[in-house]
Each structure stands twice: as C-alpha cells, then as structure tokens.
C-alpha cells in the first residue's frame, strides 16, 4: 500500500462529490427542458437540491427565454463545481 493512499482517497471522494453535484444540476436542466411534472416527488427533490446548489448562479443571467436562464444559471454552477472539485481532487492526489 502506498503512503499516499489517504490523499488519493480524499481526492477521489472530492471528485465524486463534485460529480454528484454536477449530476443533480444537469438532471434538473434536463427535467426542466423536458417539462417534467413538478408535482412528482423526485422532480421536486432534484429541483430543490439544484436550487440550493445553484443559489449563487441561478439568477445570474437575464435572458428573455426561461430555458436559457435555466441552462446558463444551473449549467454554470455545474461546470464550476466540476472544475473546482476536480482541481482540488487532483491537488489532493499529488500530496
């Protein structure tokens, strides 16, 4: 076993969390674009989680079309979480 095993595990965990966050945001974008039933419990859960995750970016853009605001705001959050999460994971993996 490598002496770096702990940092590799931590990096892997950070990357997985970032991936899950981006997945939730991407899933909400897809559900929104496909006009998913908002009365459904799963749709409501994903929407609530995505709103929380994208709280800082969801109203950042003021496109005229609702779908463009959703894709840009939630998509930006997903990209940022992936970028930062994987950068941190790579950094942890090097130590």
Q: Find the count of extended strands (DSSP E, 2+ residues).
A: 0
Number of helices: 3
Task: Return the structural class.
Answer: mainly alpha
**Termini, distance in Å?**
15 Å
Low-confidence stretches: none
SSE arrangement, N to C: HHH
Fold and architecture overview:
- The protein has 95 residues and is an all-alpha fold.
- The mean pLDDT is 92.
- 75% of the residues lie in helices and 0% in strands.
- Helix 1 packs across helix 2.
- It is built from three helices and no strands.
- 24% of the residues are buried.
Features:
single chain; 95 residues
Structure summary:
With 95 residues, this protein is mainly α. It has helices spanning 5-33, 41-53, 66-94.
Describe the secondary structure blueprint for this structure.
Blueprint: H1 5-33, H2 41-53, H3 66-94
């Amino acid at each position: 076993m490598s002496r770096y095993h702990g940092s590799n595990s931590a990096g892997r965990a950070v990357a997985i969390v970032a991936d899950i966050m981006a997945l939730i945001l991407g899933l909400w974008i897809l559900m929104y674009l496909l006009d998913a039933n908002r009365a459904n419990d799963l749709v409501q859960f994903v929407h609530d989680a995505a709103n929380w995750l994208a709280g800082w970016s969801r109203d950042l853009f003021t496109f005229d079309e609702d779908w463009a605001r959703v894709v840009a705001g939630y998509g930006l959050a997903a990209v940022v979480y992936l970028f930062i999460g994987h950068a941190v994971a790579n950094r942890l993996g090097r130590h």
